[in-house]
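Section handout 9: paired folding examples.
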Amino acid sequence: MNFEFSEEQLMLREQARGFLSQHCPPTRVREVFDGEQDYDATLWNSIAEMGWTATAIPEAYGGLGLGYYELAIIAEELGRAVAPVPFSSSVYLATEALIAFGNESQKERWLPGLASGECIATLAHAEGAGQTTAKSLTTSLSDGTLTGGKKPVADGTSANIAIVTAAAGDGSVTLCLVELDQDNVDRSPIQTLDFSRGHATLTFNNATAEALGDGTIAWSAFEALLDRAAVLMAWEQLGLADKALEQACDYAQQRYAFGRAIGSFQAIKHKLAGMYVKNALARSNAYHGAWALASNSDTLPLAASTARVASIQASLNAAQENIQTHGGMGFTWEFDCQFYYRRAKLLSLAIGSERHWQDRLVTALEQQKPAAA
């Protein structure tokens, strides 16, 4: 089994890295941090013009009809750049939900706008602290109106539409499509640790909504949607972790103490080596996850959970050790180390915590078919 990318895919990585180096340097990220905007709209429009938002959308709906390997490559480069855009919410989650569960009319109406980037979407699922399940959902859909609240909703301040989970009462779930620019939807901004991504509390007061597809889906089908997003987020976290390691190595070679570069000290060497090992393990699992996603393998729940846990651990470790390598200046506002730490913490909780995905990993292992004797 060959997990290596093709020559064309490696060219896409080179192109994406070059584009983001030019259009999303740390100074652009800092502008969003210091400003009042929830994302970089200019960068978002440029990304859409590059066709990245259309990568995995079928050509029949205005997409490029490429695959998940290409989307994983783009996700990795967006992670390296800590891009302040609503890409994960709109592409990994909402767009995938529409493709998987929407009816033909819904796909024809919304997918072209999502492909062009003119429409931004998000998935509104969490209803507060802790893991939201089919049994704990309180948001409800009745006669085309939605009532309830969701928080925190990633990119909820900037999205045009939201795919909202609502209780179906039988252990299943209804995915509702809601246009957010209506009087019966209230958006209240929430400040999270990552200032470059806007979050909100969404309150629905008999808001007009429509169910995706046939109305309800099994909870396992919704979890499969999260599995798909977990693989792509793992690649984004991997890009972040590798960039944090690169930044730490660069600083260790440039910073001198006691007459020599701090990278020559054994303590720093061990720190950087530990970062590399965790990143390498996460990359191996991310490759497996991308293969399982692209091939629609039955092993996707296991591959996604493994990739998600490894990427959370690698990105958090790399972001923390990067700050430590920079010493007393690493935690200050003036240094860029904080960008990777804040994004790593945010992504470690989006779509479920590490503990949740560890539980999913154990469950997937238990459900594996035993090998033939």
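Moving on to protein 2 of 2.
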Amino acid sequence: MIHLKKAVRSFVQSKYLDLFGATLVLVISIYNQYHLTYYFQGNVKFDVPFSEQIALIKQGAFPLGIFSTIGAVFSLLSTRFVGKQNNVGNIIGVFTTINSGTIDYFLGNHSAAITYPLTFIITYFAVIKWKKGEKIRKIDINYYLINSVGLVLGYLLVYIGTEIFGGRDDLLFFNIVSITFGLSLGANFSSALKYETTFLSWTIYNVVQLIKAFLQLNIANIAKYIFYMINAAITLGDWIWNRDVRKKAALS
């Protein structure tokens, strides 16, 4: 059991896995041609050839895909650093939240105008809590309440946002956005309070994303979320078994 605990901590703290994960996400983003997507004059333009991109930018187009690709890489790094119990992960998360919210809004999720600001506040709250030396805490009734309220808020805020700001409102899209946002709300708040089961919430979140990728037959995203799911499951074990990371190890 001691060897298993050491192996789990080594996995979580590994710099090589940071590099592997970031490279995997970058390759998948390029494979999905996210970098060829632009927002121009109120419309999203996909698969814009490189030969047309400079001219499009000069006309005021927003390089949605490039920011999406960069954001995906830093989002992975944020997740990895949070798993290491390094507050840098939360700081990166503050900026990726702004980036992701903007991209989601442009892609039709107009409820992002009210959902992402809440995620921003929770992530900033995590930065403050961790800076004060937050320690991993045992699971209690509040953990279940946080995640339950997160799901309810997910549906409520996405509904309100869609009613106010419009955007896509088909039932499948509404349910997917609501569930994933609700799960992320609970996971982010659990992370801010450093519950030992925080990465159980992220594991469930990644399972939902993986199911969505299977339904879409998106092989690239299937690979990405398998990595995310494995990373979350092993990090869950590390937080439960190995508890807090000493400062020197956390910064390594």
